[in-house]
């Protein structure tokens, strides 16, 4: 966009603390919160109800590609709603951010992630790509003439973000496909408002598949670090999306990534992030890297309890909060 110039030489990226401090603080966070037993595992998708509530993993990946993990950071789980952020990035890269802004929007609904009322109250507008209605509309915009083409694009794109081939969890997909009537209804409602660009049931199926891809906390940290690194995967060196796309995606995450709790999240943690009902959370510190957590116990809004606590602690301890500052010169007075 010609009127959207930003001088890359004047962007302050900062850096993560020294490696030994990162390792120490990651372990501190794990030890602080591993015993927290608040929250409950998601059970409205039967396949998720079997998750071990004791699992807890943390991972951080810097824009240099350095990676540090603790706990169950390599345990695989279905990506669920965390996928919304990265499919949004892929679609913005393919169609242009302004086109997606016009068709989907970027404002918080203030309501639950699967709200039908939010659609009706806003004239059929999905409002943002991080609630289910917006994610379905976004997935329908994925390039491809058929559902198979769209799925291939999504799987390849999310794999590029993760730096390795991501595979479908067939059990989770089957379980979700058998219980996704609400999403099908939302997609049909979007169709009635002219807000979905593909057959609504096929778009719902592609969306269900994207949510069923298997990732680990370390994968999510690599994916987030790709957004932090201007669209280049810091592990593989592959450009996944254009640099301009990253800042638009991070802005949307800041306002809506934690659903109706997004304001509280930004107030206490100060980082754009995205959660999923399988227990994953990814947060991004632009120019520095990404912190991800995994723990299946969720709060009432569907966000990981331990993950939120650990992220809050590490955001402050690692100096990641985007809104934190200190005087350039300490003044006596």
From TrEMBL:
<dbReference type="GO" id="GO:0004359">
    <property type="term" value="F:glutaminase activity"/>
</dbReference>
<feature type="binding site">
    <location>
        <position position="207"/>
    </location>
    <ligand>
        <name>substrate</name>
    </ligand>
</feature>
<feature type="binding site">
    <location>
        <position position="183"/>
    </location>
    <ligand>
        <name>substrate</name>
    </ligand>
</feature>
<comment type="similarity">
    <text>Belongs to the glutaminase family.</text>
</comment>
<keyword id="KW-0007">Acetylation</keyword>
<feature type="binding site">
    <location>
        <position position="277"/>
    </location>
    <ligand>
        <name>substrate</name>
    </ligand>
</feature>
<feature type="binding site">
    <location>
        <position position="176"/>
    </location>
    <ligand>
        <name>substrate</name>
    </ligand>
</feature>
<comment type="subunit">
    <text>Homotetramer.</text>
</comment>
<dbReference type="Pfam" id="PF04960">
    <property type="entry name" value="Glutaminase"/>
</dbReference>
<dbReference type="InterPro" id="IPR012338">
    <property type="entry name" value="Beta-lactam/transpept-like"/>
</dbReference>
<dbReference type="InterPro" id="IPR015868">
    <property type="entry name" value="Glutaminase"/>
</dbReference>
<protein>
    <recommendedName>
        <fullName>Glutaminase</fullName>
        <ecNumber>3.5.1.2</ecNumber>
    </recommendedName>
</protein>
<feature type="binding site">
    <location>
        <position position="132"/>
    </location>
    <ligand>
        <name>substrate</name>
    </ligand>
</feature>
<keyword id="KW-0378">Hydrolase</keyword>
<feature type="binding site">
    <location>
        <position position="259"/>
    </location>
    <ligand>
        <name>substrate</name>
    </ligand>
</feature>
<feature type="binding site">
    <location>
        <position position="81"/>
    </location>
    <ligand>
        <name>substrate</name>
    </ligand>
</feature>
């Amino acid at each position: 966009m010609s009127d959207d110039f930003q001088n890359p030489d004047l962007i302050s990226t900062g850096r993560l603390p020294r490696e030994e401090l990162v390792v120490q603080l990651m372990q501190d966070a794990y030890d602080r919160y591993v015993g927290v037993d608040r929250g409950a595992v998601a059970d409205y998708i039967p396949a998720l109800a079997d998750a071990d509530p004791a699992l807890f993993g943390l991972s951080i990946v810097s824009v240099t590609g350095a990676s540090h993990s603790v706990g169950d950071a390599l345990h695989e789980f279905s990506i669920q709603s965390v996928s919304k952020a990265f499919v949004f990035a892929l679609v913005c890269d393919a169609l242009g951010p302004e086109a997606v802004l016009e068709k989907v929007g970027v404002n918080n609904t203030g309501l639950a992630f699967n709200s039908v009322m939010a659609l009706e109250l806003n004239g059929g507008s999905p409002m943002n790509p991080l609630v289910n209605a917006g994610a379905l509309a976004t997935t329908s915009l994925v390039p491809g003439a058929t559902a198979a083409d769209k799925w291939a694009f999504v799987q390849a794109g999310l794999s590029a973000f993760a730096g390795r081939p991501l595979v479908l969890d067939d059990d989770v997909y089957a379980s979700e496909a058998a219980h996704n009537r609400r999403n099908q209804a939302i997609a049909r409602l979007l169709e009635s408002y002219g807000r979905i660009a593909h057959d609504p049931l096929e778009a719902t199926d592609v969306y269900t598949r994207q949510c069923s891809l298997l990732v680990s906390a370390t994968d999510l940290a690599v994916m987030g670090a790709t957004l932090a690194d201007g669209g280049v995967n810091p592990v593989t060196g592959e450009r996944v999306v254009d640099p301009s796309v990253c800042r638009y995606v991070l802005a949307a995450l800041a306002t809506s990534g934690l659903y109706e709790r997004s304001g509280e999240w930004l107030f206490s943690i100060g980082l754009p992030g995205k959660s999923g009902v399988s227990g994953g959370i990814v947060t991004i510190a632009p120019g520095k890297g990404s912190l991800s957590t995994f723990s299946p116990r969720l709060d009432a809004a569907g966000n990981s309890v331990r993950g939120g606590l650990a992220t809050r602690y590490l955001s402050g301890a690692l100096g990641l909060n985007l809104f934190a500052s200190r005087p350039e010169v300490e003044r006596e007075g």
